[in-house]
Amino acid sequence: MPKTIEEINEKIKNGNVVVLTAEEIIDYVQENGIKKTAKEVDVVTTATFGPMCSSGAFINFGHSDPPIKMAKVWLNDVPAYTGIAAVDSYIGATELSESEGMNYGGAHVIEDLISGKNIRLRSTAYGTDCYPRKEINTYINKQTINQAYLFNPRNVYQNYSVATNSSGKIIYTYMGKLLPHFGNATYSCAGQLNPLINDPYYRTIGVGTKIFLGGGVGFVAWQGTQHNPEVERLPNGVPLGGAGTLALIGDLKNMNTKFIKAAIFTGYGVTMFMGVGIPIPVIDEEMVEYLKVKDEDIYVSISDYSVQRRNKPTFGKVNYRQLREGKITINKREVPTGSISSYQKAREIAILLKKWIKDNNFLLTSPVSQLPASGSTKPLNIVNEEEI
Amino acid sequence: MASEKLILDFPKNVVTKPIVYHVVKDFDLEFNILRAEITPNLEGRMLLEIRGKKDKIEECKNFLKKEGVQTREATQEIILDKELCVNCGACVSLCFSHALAINKDTYEIEFDKDKCVLCGICLNGCPVNALKSKI
Ligand code: SF4
Ligand code: SF4
């Protein structure tokens, strides 16, 4: 008998819901089988905590007197986008400070805002009859501003790749520092805890799904940019590379810097560690088939990041169990591996979300609309207008 | 008498031992191997403290360079700031000597000072600046 979200929510309210994390469900299925698990378990919590560049926040500053129609905005010297209404802006995580360069960026502004620090706001404008002011220099913090919400165009990649470096010199990438001659290999995926790997065909996660975002509550807003569901998949639905992605939204004011953190990748720039947790309702037996996925079943390709092209040469596939063991073999060489996303934090989030649900502090939602199950990512070609 | 802490990186084809004996004989230096590591690919790294006349130490460094051994001065001490660390693991694959490792039960990062060869490679590999060198 399939379960409905309403039935699960009733159980949450009555205090008899059964929730497991995506780690715990693995052994549970092993011991109890698919049928029994589908009957007994109601929710499985998944999570991830990794660097996600495609993140940022909309902020409304409120109106000054006389008012200003901001044309350029800086927050602690980091430029924000303001080509929208007078005092609306968007601060992107990867934007760099004009005075401190790669040592401070948009992600730091967001982290400082969440932790309640004061932020210097500077703005210039051309002045209009209704917005006469031409510049402003002031301070804001999360109490003084109106809305401040994260809107991340692309988070929660469904699998990714392993990065290594065949060249003779150190390279600095968004996958971290890569040592010469296959000196190391890095990866960034929560594997068996990853939300979209546990719901590979987006049966329960869709537009409107309520989630844990940066320590507060958020929602899936849309398919993420570069959502690419048509990637080659294993029989268990697991894609062999980056496939689905999610656009996320959530109130910045309720977040916690334990679960959202600015990051600097030397030589690459600023990005943001985003903590995301997604509950998956165990609606039927088919769902359990996906939820029982473990690190050994999740494969990913190894790419050579020293090749500065869109398509990089690959060196075969490995699974996340091998990666977490700390070494893999590439071209007959033993190569040490390291994650750049935190499995410890992902686990902490999955456990916390489980507690929220058990304590009746978090009800589940049905998606308002499904995510696309087809479509793939297009490249950008350099052409004349006649050729396009 | 001068003393220096040096890190020696031996490429695959250089045999480590005879070189170290040359250092003693030809340059009249005392040395103390604080730590040594050899990778499965037979590359080596060594943390040495050498003592001797200043110009002899310089000559020795030039000799090593000619032999294909890279030398650099060791940093003082590496500190892991647990408050800042998010346990991502980005530093782990950079650490040649396994001083930085992930605990397979808790998935927290652990730093074993005794294994650290002070090479400094991890320092700019931490995205939240949790690894620092004490000067
Ligand atoms: S300096 Fe860093 S990378 Fe080098 S041995 Fe010590 S901990 Fe490992
Ligand atoms: S790279 Fe930095 S934050 Fe990540 S585990 Fe190492 S010390 Fe911790």
Quick gist of this model?
The complex is a heterodimer of chains A (about 400) and B (about 140). Chain A is an alpha+beta fold and about 400 residues long.
Beta-strand residue percentage of chain B: 25-35%
Strand content of chain A: 25-35%
Structural class computed from helices and strand pairing of chain B: alpha+beta
Number of helices of chain B: 2
What is the count of DSSP helices of chain A, taking H or I runs of 4+ residues? 7
Determine the mean pLDDT of chain B: 84
Name the chain pair whose interface involves the most residues: A-B, 33 and 23 residues
Oligomer: heterodimer
What are the salient characteristics of this protein?
heterodimer; A: 388 residues; alpha+beta; ten-stranded mixed sheet; six-stranded mixed sheet; 7 helices; globular; B: 135 residues; Alpha-Beta Plaits; 2 domains; four-stranded antiparallel sheet; two-stranded antiparallel sheet; 2 helices; elongated; binds iron/sulfur cluster
Q: Could you characterize what this model shows?
A:
Chain A folds into two domains: 5-52 and 152-358, no CATH class; 62-145, no CATH class. Chain A is 18% helix and 33% strand. Chain A is built from seven helices and 24 strands. Chain A has helices spanning 5-14, 24-40, 106-114, 195-198, 285-291, 320-325, 343-358, and strands at residues 19-21, 43-51, 56-60, 72-75, 78-80, 88-92, 96-97, 101-105, 119-124, 135-140, 148-155, 162-164, 171-173, 176-178, 185-187, 210-213, 216-223, 246-251, 260-265, 269-281, 299-304, 314-319, 327-330, 333-339. In chain A, the strands form five sheets. In chain A, strands 1, 2, 3, 6, 11, 16, 17, 18, 19 and 20 form a ten-stranded mixed beta sheet that branches. In chain A, strand 4 (72-75) and strand 5 form a beta hairpin. Chain B is an alpha+beta fold and 135 residues long. Chain B folds into two domains: 2-73, Alpha-Beta Plaits (2-Layer Sandwich), CATH 3.30.70.260; 77-134, 2-Layer Sandwich (Alpha-Beta Plaits), CATH 3.30.70. In chain B, 19% of the residues lie in helices and 33% in strands. Chain B contains two helices and eight strands. In chain B, helix 1 (16-27) packs antiparallel against helix 2. The two termini of chain B are 22 Å apart. The site of one iron/sulfur cluster has 13 residues of chain B, from loops.
